Input
Amino acid sequence: MNGYQFFVDPSRCIGCKSCMQACAECDSHRGVSMIHVDFLDRANSIATAPTVCMHCETPTCAMVCPADAIKRGEDGIVRSALEPRCIACSNCVLACPFGVPTVHVELELMMKCDMCYDRTSIGLRPMCATVCPSQALTFGPADLIERQRAARPVRDFQFGHEHVRTKVWMMAPTDVRDITVDVADYMWKEQ
Amino acid sequence: MATPPLSVDRLAEVFGPHRNYEPPGGWGDAARRPDALVKTHCSFCGMQCGIQLKVRDNRVVGFEPWEAFPFNHGMLCPKGVKRYLQGAHPDRLLSCLQRTDAGFAKISYERALAETARRLTAIRDQYGPDAIAVYGGASMVTEKAYVLGKFARVALGTKHIDYNGRLCMVSAGTAYKLTFGVDRATNPWPDLATADVVLIAGSNTAECAPITTYHLWQCRERGGRLIVMDPRMTPITRNADLYLPVRPGTDLAVFLAMLHVIVGDGLVRDAFIRDRTTGFEAVRASVAEWTPARAAEISGVRPDDIVKAAHWIGETDRAMGLHARGIEHHSKGVENCLAMLNLFLATGNVGREGAGCMMITGQGNGQGGREHGQKCDQLPGMRDIRDPAARQYIASVWGVPEESLPGPGKSAVEIMEAIHRGEIKALLSMCFNPVVSLPDAAFTREALSKLEFFGIIDFFLCETAHHADIVFAGSLQEEDEGTVCSAEGRVQKINKAVDPPGDARSDALIICDLARALGRGQHFDYPGGTRDIYEELRLASRGGLADYYGITWDRIERELGVFWPCPTLDHPGTPRLFADGRFAHADGKAHMQVTEWRESGDPADATYPILLTTGRVVSHYLSGAQTRRIGPLVDQCPEPRLELHPALAATLGVADGDWLEVTTRRAALVIQAMVVRTIRPDTVFIPYHWPGQRSANRLTHRTLDPRSKIPEFKVSACRLEKVAPPLELSTWRREETGWGAPASGDQRSDLPRSDR
Output
């Protein structure tokens, strides 16, 4: 998996939740999904977006953790909270700029996406990005993405005064267009 | 009379649907350390994605993506991910059942065979062979479809065999045979990525064939443009370059106007028309009056958008069409498809990479399941049952006199109508749940209750099986082996992962044993099992349109699928049809067909002013007999909801989450509203995967396309009224009311849950 990177392109998402269903099949958290898919505004649009952990270079979740339970590995992957240390205080949940961590109250533990390092370490791609039918979630070589995609990968985000750089890349449109989503706007006359 | 022996509530208590959430053995170690990974395919749509099933202790315990399979490269939709939860399911039928006054009683396989043979023989002796009908299904492997067709014609001698593919892509199949001479998508799926323009008409591609989205997005990445034509904005519309919000039932008007523009604006490829087609002059004349303005009045699509779409298709030599049930489920479904094909022929966009027109087959083996003999008008190899040469050849393969082969029989809905009229007295059904999937569900229930004998082969007691006299415990896809043909035309191998549990058997074996019990065993002797059936099928298909003769199981495994036609063992297969310049008609030409506009069979009026259309959601499959038992898929979409536009909602005083009564000329149902701006204001949508009170098909009508015999699911007239929420949601969720014994008078079924 050398040179493979994780890319998220929300514009490709079809909201099928295959990623969530597959995430729940992963060996390290069986039956529970660590990622989610949302309709952004179902009343007005069919647009959906997947959320996986972005694996920040300086993870806010780790910085605000009073128990020092959240570690970023040398591989750049920010792990779920360490079981003996986590006090389930939810500081990380509140602080994460992407809305990723979840505290599992019954386990008194914060768990989140760990980019399937159990799979990538044995040459398998992360479960969500492998199954994703639209490849809104993609795990592959950066040069392939550059060749095959029109959008531009970015990994620098600005939240107010806070700059965040992530391991995961977000595909951003090279030009922004107004998007109208009312069927009536496309129809012939007022019918 | 074949009415349910107990209240449906009580049957549901015993036989489900219950929701399975965990693999056998729970979330423990079993799935982490499987005994084997079996390479096979998903059971849940025409994409037939490659998948590996994890097996431990003869049970499927999970899945692993199969990245090497060239169609889907490991990609799967949620149904594929969770499909493994249908194995080792608590509702799984483990033995044969017989209906008694007290419920369904367990009986031995031998007794089920003997009883079924006795009843069918008696009915045949009394009323003749055509008093018996057979229903098949297009989710079964091709070998089962083949042997079922042979069983109907050779063992029972009835002409009435048809299948649930009649509810799927028969309009497309009829149109492709008329125009191209063969019923198959023209191009392999990766061609989509190489097109400049793709017209997607009447296909909720992202939810019904999710993997296709990948190819469409790749098309866009390299600058291709997508035109989406649908009354709803489905997920595929989020990246459409042109969206045509067609009124349900009016697709034909848009296609005719597009051809009008293509003709009028000089976009016809004259050399292609001259050298490779017939019938164009008549087609050209037929669109003369179809101005975009006229089509706009009918369809609600803007005239300038019709012009734009026509120009995009006409100005490139790399245009592709994709269509599905949205244009096919109509009383003019064949016309819709013919008119769409005409666009691609007129602009010379067929027979090359990035140029062609493809139906998206919906069912697991929608393509293979219709090629080899369970369709009422076809013999194996996609042969016409009326063709004397075809009859002679198949009779010789089967070792029966040609004159003993019945002619064409009734189609699926027509069979149900003949049952209702009392003409057909007995039904044997396999892999079909007509109570949920046929239109006008109350009529279907009434018809089934009139049967003198009803036998079913299935792995769950689906809603239709509530009416059965005898139920055989059949096999899941992963419990048997065989072949399927994907939407692309790729013949693939289904591998057996586990044995059928308990006293359940392979469906094909049950059919052959039943033939023996009927005294026709000499024609159903397959000592090598399904492989022997396939070998006979190869031979039976030889020389037909769907020629599998050169496709062996070994080749399929080695080459990861082979595209038909493949007439010889050294033939490479045919991923792209007509690439040699010849179409499949004897003259080598495509036969362009004139289409005529007509109204749908259930038109709107002052009493029923709104158009109802039905379809699927991503987490369910067809009648839901399987997916309504898979917990995580049910959670993703637990109940149907009615989609309506805020402008319509305002006239009704309805807000999101309110309850509505929907009334059509057949029936009324109560359903919760989902107010969204992603549907036409004159149209409402209900997904059809549920039975009983929640069944969209209570509302639909039985008008058929005169040629394909497909029902008009995609447009019914309705009216809407805001109502109070149901007092008891549990009552609303009941599988059915008004059938079976009253709940208070129930005796307990003699089958405790643990004893199934």
